[in-house]
Amino acid sequence: MTTEKKNQHYIPKFYLRYFAYKGREQIGIHNTQSGYTFSTAKLKKQGSKNFFYGNDGVIEEHLGKLESKLALVIKRIRDNHLLPKKNSKDYVTLLHFIALTHLRNPVAMQQELDANKQKREKVAELYPYHETKQLIPEITNIEAISASLLSVSYLVRNLLDLECKILINKTKKGFITSDLPVVRYNQFLEERKWPHGKSGFGKIGLQIFIPLSHELCLILYDSAIYKVGNRKEERIVIDDVNDIDQLNMLQFTNCFQTVFFSDKVTEDYIQYLKRRSVPYQKANIVNSTTKRAFVNGDVAKEKIIILSTITDNQIKLNTKAIKVHAQGKKKVLSTSLAQYRAWPEFLNKNKDQMLKEVLNL
Description:
single chain; alpha+beta; 5-stranded mixed β-sheet; 4-stranded antiparallel β-sheet; 13 helices; about 20% strand; globular; DUF4238
């Protein structure tokens, strides 16, 4: 059967309305690939694709039910500028909103597809006389987005140790958002010039930014590393334009191809942000490489491993509101390629049990 809901949103419609105006029916858009900017686009056509979640409507219907719960919690945060108590039911719902918004979009799907394609290409190079599809089957668009969505519960568990605060914009330049509004960053590992992955959900020094309107932005962060405003303050006022510029640039370097903005943001400001973000690499690009591994140091038992990595957001973030605190500066990194926080490291050691819970086995 084919669902009647042809236009399926990968960015929750209730979320995009936070940046809309004129009866919440219009929104500003800028396409980073074509350079096209239009400040009065129709909201209902944004952040969506025809049958993005498939023709049967199963995933679309499930996500629609979840959105009604997510929307209530996010609305209360926006209206009252108050966060739910940590680890409360509403707080966990907030984390689900962040995880789902991060995963249910073309970027997540494209990452799955690119990783699959690159692995198949590497296998074809290494084993030219084998049928590649037998070793690594090709996946479809629906399989890619389904695989991405399977990790929601595990991601939420990884976020439970992070602190959360609200950034309140008091400048004349509003926050913008994008078709991938959840930005992962790691100021700490970037400053340490860490050469490996920096923005995984379990990494030391992780920061997550997600704007909720032209004047509000959530930040989740590793409190063992950072100080965000005063320790006891839940709401942090930002009155420095340069801080807002930097946080907005992250939407340009993070997005798939579109940034969104309200009537509080001018087209000239969008062009300014685009120019400032040009020198920095695009985040979320998949790169696959082959590595040689040796079993117990035995060359005769060497194995080929295909590693897929994703480019990090790196714009040399340096704001007045967010700083590495004294204890963070003293943090000694391990020799491991993956620098985990304590809680995600515990989860990783027990990942088999966690996976069974996620898959309800």
